[in-house]
Design brief:
- The chain is of the alpha/beta class and 259 residues long.
- It has two domains: 8-50; 58-256, Rossmann fold (3-Layer(aba) Sandwich), CATH 3.40.50.
- The protein has helices at residues 58-68, 90-102, 117-128, 157-170, 188-194, 211-220, 230-235; strands at residues 8-11, 20-26, 29-34, 40-44, 48-50, 77-79, 83-87, 107-111, 132-136, 178-181, 198-199, 245-246, 254-256.
- The strands form three sheets. The chain has a six-stranded mixed sheet, sandwiched between helices. The chain has a five-stranded antiparallel sheet with strand order 4-3-2-1-5, with no helix packed on it.
- β7 (83-87), α2 (90-102) and β8 form a beta-alpha-beta unit.
- α3 (117-128) runs parallel beside α4.
- The protein is globular, with a radius of gyration of 19 Å.
- The protein starts with 7 loop residues before the first strand and ends with a strand.
């Protein structure tokens, strides 16, 4: 089958488990990026089959989050928390920003290589002063490099961990700055130890492109005076507790009166 750059494909050897976009082809090797999953992969061209991609399910996710966080509009006004989303992937970032926009949330987006995020995180925090910070992009766990407790076994976990540590130097309180960190297969435990409120991935699985944004939106729309329902918020992501975990903290939204 004639596979070209830009085609949408699935892998025969993985039982067509997810859809990829072909980024590059070198001889008989195709370099791929997950459409809905934050994953880079490569594959023999003979293992690929073209498929149709009819668009994301983001609108369904937006409606579900709206239903989950419906706000009483009678006598009160609401000030959701401000989000700063730093992402190593431009396409995923734009998709997340569109998601925030559809929820009428204030969000700033920065596309930055994972390796350089730790060096620049403080200036971004000083400039935007967010309530919620996302540090994400791409990651992977390589079994051949070592065990799951060895951070050297991961593609970008060390960069995410260092960025979280720098952010915590800026703001130590987990309630004043909510940090959501990690990507597919990231070192969950080290990210939590570094100071993240939420992190991926407890079971070292791949996560949906919008999972960090879903957590951020739920935190943005949660009352600043109340502890969150941790299990409910995590369950609102694509893969639940296997993909993302976190700690109980308070929301970031102020409620005012009168309108």
């Amino acid at each position: 089958m004639d596979i070209r750059v830009g085609d949408y494909v699935t892998r025969i050897s993985h039982n067509h488990d997810m859809i990829f976009k072909v980024l590059e082809i070198e001889e008989d090797i195709c370099y791929l990026k997950g459409v809905n999953i934050r994953l880079y992969a490569d594959s023999l061209i003979d293992d690929l089959v073209k498929t149709k991609y009819e668009g994301s399910d983001d609108s369904e996710i937006v409606e579900r989050i709206k239903d989950t966080t419906s706000l009483e509009r009678d006598d009160y006004f609401y000030l959701p928390g401000k989000i700063l989303h730093i992402d190593g992937d431009r396409e995923y970032l734009d998709r997340c920003l569109s998601y925030y926009n559809n929820l009428n949330l204030m969000a700033m987006g920065i596309c930055e290589d994972e390796e350089t995020i730790p060096n620049n995180i403080r200036k971004y925090l000083e400039e935007y002063n967010p309530n919620i910070l996302i540090i994400t992009g791409h990651d992977a766990y390589y079994k051949k490099k070592g065990g799951i407790n060895d951070i050297k076994s991961y593609k970008n976990s060390i960069n995410f961990v260092n960025a979280v540590k720098e952010a915590r130097k800026f703001e130590k309180s987990h309630d004043k700055l909510i940090i959501i960190a990690g990507a597919c297969q990231s070192d969950y435990e080290e990210l939590i130890r570094a100071g993240a409120n939420f992190a991926s991935s407890p079971k070292r699985i791949n996560i949906h492109a919008l999972d960090p944004a879903i957590i951020a939106s739920r935190m943005s729309l949660s009352d600043i005076n109340k502890d969150i329902d941790l299990k409910d918020i995590i369950a609102s992501t694509k893969y639940g507790k296997e993909g993302i975990g976190g700690i109980i903290t308070k929301g970031t939204m102020y409620v005012g009166y009168p309108r």
